[in-house]
Amino acid sequence: MKIFSGIQPTGDKHLGNYIGGFRQYAATQELGEAFFCIVDLHSITVEYDPRDLHDRTLDLFAMLIATGLDPDRSTVFAQSHVTAHAEASWLLSAVTSFGQLGRMTQFKDKAEKREFVSAGLFTYPVLMAGDILLYRTDRVPIGDDQRQHLELARDVAERFNARFGETFVVPEGIYPEVGARIMDLQEPTRKMSTTGGTEQGTVKLLEEPDVIRKKFRSAVTDSGREIRRGDDKPGVSNLVDILAVATQRTPGEIEVAYDGAGYGDLKRDVGEAVVELLAPVRQRYLELRADEPELLRLLSVGAEKARAASAPTLEAMYDRMGFVRLG
Ligand code: AQP
């Protein structure tokens, strides 16, 4: 089985990224041949500082390894090192519907907040479709926020196959059973996000333990006193889910364990559990990040493996679309 997922080298990575992304990557690499991509080409679709991109790419690479990816076992690489991604995106734009791109909620949300909306922000899901399809991916571990983009990648694959002949595997998403959408601690009706969330409500993976504890202590809860999940209790539901993931229990077990306890106890315990969960990650990250030549070496190994794995698919695309190939 082939597995692929991508993550952007933008902003500080947060607990939502850990639960919907990093944690799933480490688990799914055991399922087969896995590819994990730092999608640096995606990160230029909104304003960014070119001076940051270099460091953030290496930061993220170190974080991917610190959270459990094994670069000997999986192919871990940067998108811009494999030119097939940009090429595939252009070819696939021929079978992507303009109307469908306009319906992407992430595009609408992000476009609304900006004065300058880049064409890249609009076509971003086509690049993402190419990322996935180039590796003949069966499964894509992602968070719930990427569901609509994956649906588009599936439609693009089906349209290409129907028009030019069977070329792509139609991929399926793998979503975490618990924590597919971690919410902002201060505004639990919107997802935790570095660009769209609140500073106090976003728990960053490299934050000091005391800062993390404080963010949980001041998390917004709901009316009533019971610790149970429900649509009327977005704050408590979010905390229960986070505690379940951090302590490897089910949300149901958490509800039973906290029967009769107060919100204060829950908030203190979630904070402590998250601090414990992230402490070894932070430690490992700092060690890895200190050795930049080794990170660059591992990145070039990943790039070579990814180039070799994606080249036959790109070639098949050109060929089936009727381009003259030079042998
Ligand atoms: N709140 C979340 N809960 C669960 N999973 C999440 N993911 C992101 N937010 C949550 C998952 O993390 C993976 C990497 O996502 P990304 O590269 O798109 O990260 P990002 O864009 O930097 O995340 P942000 O902070 O949420 O930025 P915005 O809001 O600007 O896009 C993906 O698998 C994603 O599902």
Summarize the structure.
The protein is mainly α. 53% of the residues lie in helices and 7% in strands. It has two domains: 207 residues, 3-Layer(aba) Sandwich (Rossmann fold), CATH 3.40.50; 78 residues, Tyrosyl-Transfer RNA Synthetase, CATH 1.10.240.
What do you see in this structure?
- The chain is mostly helical and 327 residues long.
- It has helices spanning 15-28, 50-66, 84-92, 98-102, 105-112, 119-133, 147-164, 209-217, 234-247, 251-257, 263-289, 292-320, and strands spanning 2-7, 33-38, 75-78, 139-141, 172-174.
- α1 (15-28) links the parallel β1 and β2.
- The longest helix has 29 residues, at 292-320.
- The chain is globular, with a radius of gyration of 21 Å.
- It starts with a strand and ends in a 7-residue tail after the last helix.
- The relative contact order is 0.15.
- Bound molecules: adenosine-5'-tetraphosphate.
- Adenosine-5'-tetraphosphate (AQP) is lined by residues 7-8, 10-11, 14, 16-17, 19-21, 142-143, 145-146, 180-182, 191-196.
Could you say which structural class the secondary elements and strand pairing correspond to? mainly alpha
Total DSSP helices: 12
- Please state how the strands of the largest beta sheet are arranged side by side: 1-2-3
Spell out which ligands are present.
adenosine-5'-tetraphosphate
Instruction: Compute the number of structural domains.
Output: 2
Classified by CATH, the class of the largest domain is Alpha Beta
Integer average pLDDT: 96
* Dominant shape: globular
Gyration radius, to the nearest Å? 21 Å
Number of strands: 5
CATH homologous superfamily identity of the largest domain: HUPs
* Name of the CATH architecture of the largest domain: 3-Layer(aba) Sandwich
Series of secondary-structure elements, N-terminal to C-terminal = EHEHEHHHHEHEHHHHH
In the CATH hierarchy, the third-tier topology of the largest domain is known as Rossmann fold
**Strand composition percent:** 5-15%
The percent range for helix content is 40-55%
**Sequence stretches where pLDDT stays below 50 over 5 or more residues:** none
What is the rounded distance between the termini? 30 Å
The largest β sheet comes out as: 3 strands, parallel
